[in-house]
Design brief:
Bound molecules: zinc ion
Largest sheet of chain A: 8 strands, antiparallel
Strand content of chain A: 25-35%
Largest interface: A-B, 42 and 40 residues
Distance between the termini of chain A: 70 Å
Shape of chain A: flat
Helix content of chain A: 25-40%
Number of strands of chain A: 8
Strand content of chain B: 5-15%
Number of domains of chain B: 1
Number of helices of chain B: 3
Number of strands of chain B: 4
Radius of gyration of chain B: 14 Å
Shape of chain B: globular
Radius of gyration of chain A: 22 Å
Number of helices of chain A: 6
Strand order of the largest sheet of chain B: 1-2
Order of helices and strands of chain A: HHEHHHEEEEEEEH
Order of helices and strands of chain B: EEEEHHH
Helix content of chain B: 25-40%
Oligomer: heterodimer
């Protein structure tokens, strides 16, 4: 009876909000006001839905919501923000690479290694200076299955995982936009490439050790994105090249 | 008509540009009805500086309050002091005399290089 009431409430939620509950994913293109309506609904989730099974995926709160809030700040009302979100997690065959046998030394008798690549967020935002920002965020997890023989001849199997967050940020500037090399290079863990031309493209990529604290997830993503805007500092971003 | 000079945007900064109805009691910049609605009539920037900012990203005002912290922290990550100071001077340029190098950029123009929020 109790759940029935909550279930009825969920049926009144925004369709994308429901998609996050039932499928832990969605793919959509919307304008800032529509995103705002979705987020206002998500904000009420916990006060209405108490059932654990129907909780929102944690990255709704730690990544989706803050990223949408930040990027829509930089958009016109008629700009489009497209998001493809997959918060189902890494355990799917299509995300898992082949297993490779690795060379080993005693007491290890065998080691298999494989990677899981989980591209859980893709995003494209039309910004108000005419530039377009694209973000791709991927979990890359290395798995190792290690088989060991201890001195008493007993076989033990151990799994080891190592997780990194890969952030790919690209900004295509408006036609004839001016870029200016920042005074200092980005920190070593961020790689930047700039293609100058009639429509300059700036690309920054980084591999970041997975944060122990998922609540801090959005800051590294925005920190990598920052490089794309250092080339057009505040107050000059709008400037077009004057002849 | 005096325009609201509250800084808008996160990476792509602009000015609000709506008609102003008051002045921020702290920094004296002209503010529109929406941006005068903060605690004690403070503009969003001064409200955030006094700790009134929201810590919940669901809140529509969160990004504006988070922005100054973010520019400060990325300035130190990038060891690029100009990054923070360019934000700060852009923001202060909205109401300080002589600080109008960016103010004059044409934020209130009707052409497509200005970022007047409508
Ligand atoms: Zn103020
Ligand atoms: Zn305003």
């Amino acid at each position: 009876m109790f759940w029935r009431k909550q279930r009825a409430a969920i049926e009144g939620f925004h369709p994308l909000h429901q998609s996050l509950i039932w499928h832990r994913s969605f793919s959509v293109s919307m304008r800032p006001a529509e995103w705002d309506a979705l987020i206002r609904g998500l904000a009420r989730h916990e006060s209405v839905v108490r059932r654990r099974r129907w909780r929102l995926p944690a990255r709704t709160r730690t990544a989706l919501v803050p990223l949408v809030r930040v990027l829509t700040e930089d958009m016109r009302p008629d700009g489009v923000l497209s998001v493809a979100l997959d918060l189902r997690g890494p355990k799917f065959p299509e995300k898992t690479g082949p297993r490779h046998e690795m060379p080993v030394q005693r007491p290890v008798t065998s080691m298999k290694q494989w990677f899981v690549v989980d591209p859980w967020l893709r995003l494209r935002a039309e910004l108000r200076d005419g530039s377009v920002l694209e973000l791709a965020v991927t979990d890359r997890i290395r798995y190792r299955r290690i088989r060991k023989r201890n001195p008493r001849g007993k076989i033990k199997v151990k799994y080891k995982t190592k997780k990194v967050l890969r952030v790919d940020a690209t900004r295509r500037l408006a036609k004839a936009a001016a870029v200016r090399r920042p005074a200092s290079p980005p920190p070593g863990w961020i790689v930047v490439r700039v293609k100058d031309g009639p429509r300059p493209v700036i690309r920054a990529t980084a591999k970041i050790p997975a944060a122990a604290d998922e609540r801090a997830l959005v800051e590294p993503i925005l920190t990598v994105s920052t490089e794309l805007f250092r080339w057009t500092p505040p107050g000059t971003g709008a400037q077009r090249r004057t002849a | 008509m005096t325009r609201c000079t509250v800084t808008t945007g996160f990476f792509v900064l602009g000015r609000c540009g709506r008609p102003s109805v008051a002045a921020c009691p702290q920094c004296a910049r002209p503010v529109c009805d929406e941006h005068a609605a903060g605690p004690n009539g403070l503009c969003p920037e001064c409200a955030a500086a006094q700790g009134y900012g929201s810590h919940d990203a669901h809140d529509p005002g969160w990004a504006g309050g988070y922005r100054r912290h973010f520019y400060q922290s990325t300035s130190s990550t990038y060891q690029d002091r100009a990054w923070y100071s360019s934000f700060d001077s852009y923001d202060r340029g909205s109401f300080e005399r002589g600080g109008d190098h960016s103010f004059a950029e044409g934020d209130f123009d009707d052409d497509d290089t200005g970022f007047v929020d409508s």
